[in-house]
Q: What sequence folds into this?
């Protein structure tokens, strides 16, 4: 028998167990509060004031206007056009990104090691390319006079593409920017879904094949349900990236296209705040964009939870 008597361990109270997760989360919450909550508070606060160049210069005092900035936005037909552009462009980019990334993830499982490594390196190079650089490269590729794409199409006998400007028309400009966005976004989807596919036990797939499941049935009935947690992550991430797109639209369409035909919310907010010095209107657009993203994410997660899925 030991000469020293061990102290009985103190029982953990329910209150302490309830506080324990918050103690672990406290450092991250403090960083988020400093980096996100306070700037968001300032953004919302500015949107309730008449805050333009005279107020910035101190010539006129700040004036509280309540919801006037939001009322002005909601009564402006241009705002609704920009909002429709943003939602339509983001939806098309998200669907295309998921399709390309998912297809290449499935393809990667069937390739040899060296070919798969080359595919991943190429994809990661696209992912690592800064948005400014990628936009400039794509603009050069589709340049009306010097771009190799127009020269190749003209060489094939398609004379309509000789000197064709891809950024002049609204839809061709959105298509070109969307292709660039998908090009730099699909690697994240591909890598995430590839990891999810590799985590599925081989026994499950072999059992389905022994039961006579065809490849489409295997993909829809077995692989897709087991990949839904990963699909949720990449879908939400893609929605956030594509709704708040700025760099590609601003560079490739010279600030929103001819007459603002390619404006999206982030570029619209930038123009209002810094080109027109209507900082409060720009802040109001920023608040609306944030609420839109939160709303889409919550609706998507709730729909998954109703179906018994979720993260």
A:
């Amino acid at each position: 028998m030991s000469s020293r008597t061990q102290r009985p361990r103190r029982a953990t109270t329910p209150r302490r167990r309830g506080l324990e997760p918050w103690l672990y989360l406290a450092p991250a919450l403090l960083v988020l509060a400093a980096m996100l909550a306070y700037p968001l508070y300032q953004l919302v606060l500015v949107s309730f004031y008449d805050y333009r160049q005279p107020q910035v210069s101190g010539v006129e005092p700040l004036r509280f206007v309540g919801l006037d900035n939001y009322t002005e936005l909601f009564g402006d037909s241009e705002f609704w056009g920009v909002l429709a552009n943003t939602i339509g462009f983001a939806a098309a980019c998200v669907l295309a990104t998921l399709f390309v990334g998912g297809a290449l993830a499935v393809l990667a499982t069937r390739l040899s090691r060296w070919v798969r490594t080359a595919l991943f390196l190429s994809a990661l190079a696209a992912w690592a390319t800064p948005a400014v650089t990628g936009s400039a490269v794509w603009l050069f590729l589709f340049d009306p006079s010097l771009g190799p794409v127009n020269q190749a199409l003209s060489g094939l006998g398609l004379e309509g593409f000789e000197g064709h400007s891809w950024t002049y028309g609204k839809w061709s400009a959105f298509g070109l920017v969307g292709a660039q966005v998908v090009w730099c976004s699909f690697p994240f989807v591909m890598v995430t879904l590839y990891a999810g596919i590799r985590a599925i036990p081989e026994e499950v797939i072999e059992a389905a094949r022994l039961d006579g499941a065809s490849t489409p049935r295997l993909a829809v009935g077995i692989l897709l349900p087991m990949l839904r947690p990963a699909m949720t992550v990449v879908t939400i991430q893609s929605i956030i990236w594509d709704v708040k797109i700025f760099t590609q639209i601003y560079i490739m369409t010279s600030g929103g296209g001819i007459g603002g035909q390619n404006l999206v919310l982030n570029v619209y907010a930038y123009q209002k705040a810094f080109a027109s010095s209507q900082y409060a209107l720009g802040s109001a657009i920023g608040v609306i964009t944030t609420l839109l993203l939160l709303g889409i994410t919550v609706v998507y997660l709730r729909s998954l939870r109703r179906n018994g899925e979720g993260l």
The domain at 83-307 is CATH 1.10.3720.10 (MetI-like fold). The beta strands are 49-50, 63-64.
